[in-house]
C-alpha cells in the first residue's frame, strides 16, 4: 500500500468520530435534493444527473476493476454512458502506452451497454453523434423484461470483467428484480452499484410527491432484501464513508465470490 492510500484509510477511519462533518454532509444531501443539485452537471457535454462525489467514486472503481463491459440500467440524457465510455477509452489508451502499441481509438474490446425503457430520440441522436459512441450499445425496453435480460446475458458472455450500474426505476420491486437479473453478471472483484439508495434516508417531503418510490419502497430496501438472501456481495462501507456526500449509501456492492 502506498503512503497516500494508507493516509486516506486512516483519515476516513477518523470520520467515525466526526459528528459535525457527518451532520454537515447529511444536511447538504437533504438541502440539495429538492433543488435538483445533481441536475447541474454534465460529462463531455451530456447531462449526467449525478453528484460529483459519486462520479469520482465511479472513476476510482473503473480504474480499479478495469472492466471490459459496463452494464447500465437507466440512460436519460446519456451522460453516464458517455462517462463510462470515456473511462474505458482511458483504459484503452493506458493499455496502449504500457504495451508500446498504436491503436485505433474508435476500435475497442471494451463496451458500455445501456438499457432504458424509453430512449428519447433526441437523446439517442446526441449519444450516437458523440465521439465516445463507438464504445456504446443501447437496448430499449424494460430492464426487467425477460427478453431484455436474455439479450444482456447473451452479450455479457463475450466479456470477462463486468461492472454493473443500476439507476432506472427506483421502486423496491423493480430494483430487486434488476439485482436478481444483473448482479450475477458482476465479476468477482468488481462492483454492482445501486444508485439512489439515499431515498430511504431522506425526510418526508424532500422528494417529489409524484414519484412511486419513497421511504420503505426504494433501492436501499431492495439492496437489503437482496443481500439477506445473497452472500456473494458485501457493502463497501469504505466508499460511502469516504464520500460522505453520496446518493448511494449501502449501494456500492462488491462481489466477493
Automatic annotation (TrEMBL):
The name this protein goes by in its record: Cephalosporin hydroxylase
Keyword Translocase: no
A GO cellular component annotation in the UniProt record: plasma membrane
GO biological process per UniProt: DIM/DIP cell wall layer assembly; lipid biosynthetic process; methylation
UniProt keyword terms in alphabetical order: Methyltransferase, Transferase
A Pfam family the protein falls into: RMNT_CmcI
Species the sequence originates in: Proteobacteria bacterium 228
GO MF, any single term: methyltransferase activity
